[in-house]
Design goal:
single chain, alpha+beta, seven-stranded mixed β-sheet, four-stranded antiparallel β-sheet, 29% strand, binds 2-acetamido-2-deoxy-beta-D-glucopyranose, carbohydrate binding, signal, C-type lectin, growth factor activity, CLec_Tetranectin-domain
Length: 245
């Protein structure tokens, strides 16, 4: 009961906490960006981004374009990004009508096509890439080609962000403690509420936040810190985020 009232109190302040991008991703404006360093089709990287609550990046200004381009240059230094990296723009629905979906359903005015692009010479070349040269000018290709990609995680859409690991596949991974160490379990608003609940419990050393989808989260307070846990007490679980106090 005590903890629940703390949770309610904290809920009102959630937005005031500074948000830090997950480990391996990079902040620009109101989003965290991370690069998929495996070669995948446009459809596949779209799924990989979505699995981390993100979407394929869409540069919406020359500043954002430069940020993404420089990020790609750093991530692929010194080899370069070869045949480019997928972004969200595509004309899959209607050939020649390019759609660059932004957060909140807008489409962007900014475009950075190279000369002669987008090319409609080949139907099926429906997806856009940031190229390796000249500040990352865009060109279009078959969506089934395997390329790198950049995902964009909107901070406003997804609150519980701090110190989460991103695996090489782009998925958020984070070890959780097994149920043996749970002191109590409650519904939570997000990582911050769960962390506060742990702080207010005298025996709590770490917590698991289990994202059950559709905004439902379970917060488990643990009597043991993850860093002190034996290997058999730690599990890698999809949608479970474990953090030490
Ligand atoms: C995209 O850019 C336009 C024009 O600058 C701006 O009005 C809009 O808010 C931007 N949208 C996002 C999601 O950044």
């Amino acid at each position: 009961m005590h903890v629940l009232s703390v949770l309610l109190l904290v809920a009102g302040f959630e937005a005031t906490f500074a948000t830090v991008c997950p480990v391996g991703s990079h902040r620009y404006g109101k989003a965290c960006y991370f690069v998929i360093k495996e070669l995948k089709s446009w459809y596949k990287v779209q799924q990989i981004c979505a699995a981390s609550h993100a979407s394929l990046a869409v540069p919406n200004s020359s500043e954002e374009q430069t940020f993404i381009w420089e990020l790609l240059q750093r991530e692929f230094y010194p080899d370069g990004l070869g045949n480019g990296a997928w972004i969200g723009c595509n004309d899959i629905n209607q050939d020649g009508v390019w759609n660059c979906p932004l957060r909140g359903g807008e489409t962007n005015a900014y475009q950075n096509w190279g000369e002669g692009n987008p090319s409609n010479q080949y139907s099926g070349a429906d997806c856009a890439l940031i190229g390796d040269r000249a500040g990352g000018i865009w060109w279009n290709q078959y969506c089934n080609n395997h390329r790198y990609a950049t995902c964009e995680l909107a901070i406003i859409d997804y609150d519980p962000l701090f110190c989460l690991q991103i695996g090489s596949s782009g998925r958020i991974t984070s070890p959780c403690l097994t149920d043996n160490h749970v002191l109590m379990e409650l519904q939570a608003q997000g990582l911050v509420s769960c962390g506060k609940a742990c702080l207010s419990h005298p025996k709590c050393s770490s917590f698991n936040l289990k994202d059950q989808g559709q905004g439902k989260m379970v917060c488990q307070l643990n009597d043991l810190a993850l860093q002190n846990a034996a290997t058999e007490d730690v599990v890698e679980m999809e949608n479970c985020y474990g953090l030490d106090l």
